[in-house]
Design goal:
mainly alpha; 406 residues; globular; 15 helices; Amino acid/polyamine transporter I
């Protein structure tokens, strides 16, 4: 009996759930508000450039039955140690950026007297409980419904915004200049559609799905699943840029760096177009979207650290999933306590760090998928190889441009 489409989808939807969060709700909306439609070129280009490196995660897992971390160790223990150090250096900031946006939306939606640190700790605690009860299967099922809710609400909002707008708009593309604009562009590209290390998470989820379903997914199915999630992330990215451009561009209004104020402005983007009656519905949709990102990142980083710890210290040190999960929660809480006053700054740090580490992951994924550890028949064709090499040059070039612009 043929599997339903929903059953075939899994890690690709988790990828979308992790990707469609800060990069879309915050960065894409700000891009539209500050530049109109002028950064659509950057949005489309970065999706093309990053595509091969994200796709290599599920491709490698399906071809070998291993995660990218297993492959990194085969490339040399030093490679895996480098990943281990990089992940420790970035995972707390990434989790903090994601969680503070979720907390801001929760505060706006529920209107309690809790401060954002309390909301953040509560959200992470609930996430830990859900992960403990449901594990991978829970994430797999939850994400399909959340992505569907967000997609429908966003499409409706964009169409009504297009129908109601009475101002002209230009599709002239803009090349940012000056330190502030270039920094925003790099931050925008850093998490659009997601940091490149999510390719590692994707391979971990792929292997986990095989264990849960007791059936090894075929490479073609894995790539199809990935493409659905990736195209969905691109589509919603364009939608959020359009919302920011149609509602806020040249309006004299700008996004606040304060979490609660920003959340209120974000919800107003929808309610101005759909009407006040929709504020609760849109608030729930936005919150559940960010909650899905929070819970997927809270699951994936400890999963990756557990795997890399086992590969590096198979007998000497036992650092399991729950050790890393609790450590990530505590570290994130500390960062939020000290950086709570400026949410936009926190998001910018996380996204810029992600972009500057992207060339590292791009090169490793390319070497692994084109080398001897991937069966010949599952290696990418000449077109994808060329795109990969162009992407590596692009990622290095933009990183150098950013550093010279400081």
């Amino acid at each position: 009996m043929k599997k339903s489409l929903l059953n075939l989808l899994g890690p690709g939807i988790l990828f979308a759930g992790a990707a469609i969060g800060v990069s879309h709700l915050v960065q894409s909306t700000r891009a539209g508000a500050d530049f109109g439609f002028g950064l659509l070129w950057a949005l489309l280009l970065v999706h093309i450039i990053k595509y091969p490196f994200f796709q290599f995660g599920p491709r490698y897992a399906a071809a070998t039955g291993e995660t990218l971390l297993d492959g990194y160790k085969k490339l040399g223990k030093g490679v895996l140690i480098s990943y281990f150090i990089l992940n420790i250096a970035t995972m707390f900031t990434i989790q903090a950026a994601v969680t503070i946006v979720t907390a801001s939306l929760a505060s706006n939606l529920f209107g309690t007297s809790f401060d954002l640190v309390t909301w953040s700790v509560l959200i992470m605690f609930v996430s830990i409980v859900l992960l403990g009860i449901g594990k991978y299967k829970f994430l797999d099922n939850l994400m399909k419904y959340i992505i569907a809710i967000l997609t429908i609400s966003t499409i409706v909002a964009v169409n009504i915004a297009l129908f109601k707008t009475n101002k002209g708009f230009s599709f002239q593309q803009i090349i940012p200049s000056g330190t502030a604009q270039v920094t925003f562009l790099i931050a925008f590209l850093g998490w659009m559609p997601a940091p490149l290390d999510i390719s590692i998470w994707h391979s971990l989820w792929s292997v986990e799905k095989d264990k849960v379903t007791f059936e090894k997914i075929k490479p073609k199915q894995a790539i199809f699943d990935f493409n659905v999630g990736y195209i969905g992330a691109l589509f919603l990215g364009v939608c959020f840029v359009m919302l920011g451009a149609l509602v806020m561009y040249q309006s004299g209004e700008s996004f606040s760096s304060k979490g609660i104020t920003f959340a209120s402005q974000l919800i107003n983007l929808y309610t101005k177009n759909l009407g006040e009656f929709s504020s609760v519905f849109i608030g729930v949709a936005a919150f559940t979207t960010m909650f899905s990102t929070t819970i997927t990142t809270l699951d994936a980083s400890p999963r990756a650290m557990e795997k890399s710890s086992f590969l590096l210290f198979p007998k000497k040190i036992k650092l399991g999933y729950w050790f890393w999960l609790i450590l990530l929660t505590l570290g994130t809480s500390v960062i939020l306590y000290y950086f709570l006053s400026d949410m936009i700054f926190l998001v910018r740090i996380a996204t810029v760090l992600s972009f500057l580490t992207a060339p590292f992951y791009a090169i490793l994924n390319y070497i692994l998928i084109t080398g001897k550890y991937t069966p010949q028949k599952h290696r990418p064709g000449i077109g994808l190889r060329i795109l990969s090499l162009v992407g590596i040059v692009f990622l290095f070039g933009f990183s150098i441009w950013f550093l010279l612009s400081l």
